């Protein structure tokens, strides 16, 4: 979910930035062509076509992170070439390009790309016969440092917003919004690649009795302990979501040949480690459904819920797999 949210955000920035870049550069293609500066016009046109091609590929391939880095390097290389070729007339393009780099990639990466581009301009361009090299170094350094600070703060804010949007505040498990998004991605992956996925609904047995006997504060602590135990015994790419109350959903991609062993080992571990304040064990019932062709998010959850109902009917503290 987090990666998907970040990719959508990055793609929107990429599309906006590319539109601004193309609209900003194209008039200079015409101006330089009419002025007889064919080389500079060709370079500008190549920049436009390159940006359009890379953004289109990023949009359709969804490889946003990689393509954003490629575009960042591409536009910095382009501004170095155009300054070398066109001299002082193209010098001011350095500043918007350096600033745009911080929109495309992580702050540290952007700063490094800017440093390399800046050194290349100093070493290869003759514009410093006209302007002060010291002024260029100071102004571009200040621009890059200011953009670095702003981009770093923005990245922290985005991660905070991402967490608030996808994580259950009480338990630290992912929430239902994240679950829906991840289930959609898992179904798409299963349909495309035939990879089996497993969905389990977990219900803490007799949890109401815990709240009634020990109070809601203890009940909340039990839920938090459950999430800590469960997440420490699943794989890093398995996902645990709070479904509501004492019910949780576990999404398991790339199921092994013996999913029942994995599920029952997890159930046994929770039974051993999850206790009330006076040391009484708390058990968990599992309703498990594997992905099958034609599965939707709703039907998948329904099959797991029906299996959970059977697990409760069998006396709880067990796992039932949907057929």
From TrEMBL:
The UniProt transmembrane annotation reads 12-31, 37-59, 66-88
Query: What GO molecular-function term can you cite, just one?
Result: diguanylate cyclase activity
Indicate the segments forming the GGDEF domain, all copies. Answer: 195-323
Sorted keywords for this record are: Membrane, Transmembrane, Transmembrane helix
Q: Which cofactor does it need?
A: Mg(2+)
The keyword Magnesium belongs to this UniProt entry's keyword annotation: no
The cross-references to CDD domains, in alphabetical order and at most eight, read: GGDEF
Record field: catalytic activity: 2 GTP = 3',3'-c-di-GMP + 2 diphosphate
UniProt superkingdom: Bacteria
Q: What are the EC numbers?
A: 2.7.7.65
Q: Which InterPro entries match?
A: Diguanylate_Cyclase, GGDEF_dom, Nucleotide_cyclase, Rev_trsase/Diguanyl_cyclase
Q: Which NCBIfam families match?
A: GGDEF
Task: Give the protein name, as stated in the record.
Answer: diguanylate cyclase
What is the protein's species of origin?
Shewanella polaris
